[in-house]
Amino acid sequence: MASAAIAAKKYCQKYSHQWETDPLLKGQSSALWCYQCVSTQPGCGTPFNWLWHWTKVCPEDDDVCVKIIEEKEGSQVITRDCLSSMQGLRTDIPADHYEGCRPAAVDVKLANYVNNSVKELDIYRNYYDTTTWCFCFLDHRCNNAITSHPSVSFPIAILLLTYQLL
């Protein structure tokens, strides 16, 4: 029995070291998986069809999944991605990145010294009436729903079922 425990310990020491040094495996344990799509693609709008879209591993260790909802006169554009992928493209990211939805930040420096008479260029980025950012990081592929997460609703459903049986 003792020899089996020693062999198991050596095996764990050998392969845990490989996990730390192998560049293909390093950093994959804490990575977050998020959907990456825009609502102009089929199945990415509301309702979301998860069968049509692949997930991507977010590049940063402390990354957050993002769902951006932009509305203009009844039409919506929904963008799903990792926060680190959006930081170089967007300047209206809210300062608070914790779970939940919040309005976009106002960028007072945007298009300050631009004199452009072509209104279709939208240099002020004020085309959309409302822009809402939704952040999530407590579950993989969490940027698919508006507010409910399967990890939260499943235990509640189990509790309700056990309460009904008692």
Written overview of the protein:
With 166 residues, the chain is an alpha+beta fold. The chain contains 3 helices and 7 strands, in the order αβββββαββα. The chain has helices spanning 2-21, 83-86, 150-165; strands at residues 33-35, 37-38, 55-57, 65-72, 75-82, 100-103, 130-136. The longest helix is centred in the N-terminal third of the chain and has 20 residues, at 2-21. The protein is elongated, with a radius of gyration of 22 Å.
Q: What value does the average pLDDT take?
A: 75
Low-confidence stretches: 1-28
> The biggest beta sheet, please?
5 strands, antiparallel
As a percent range, the share of strand residues is 15-25%
Strand order of the largest sheet: 2-5-4-7-6
What's the helical proportion of residues?
10-25%
**CATH hierarchy class name:** Mainly Beta
- The structure class reads alpha+beta
Say which CATH homologous superfamily is assigned: CD59
Shape: elongated
Distance between the termini: 45 Å
Supply Rg.
Answer: 22 Å
| Counted beta strands | 7
The CATH level-2 architecture is identified as Ribbon
The secondary-structure element order is HEEEEEHEEH
Main location: membrane
Membrane topology: Lipid-anchor; GPI-anchor
Subcellular location: Membrane
GO biological process, one term: sleep
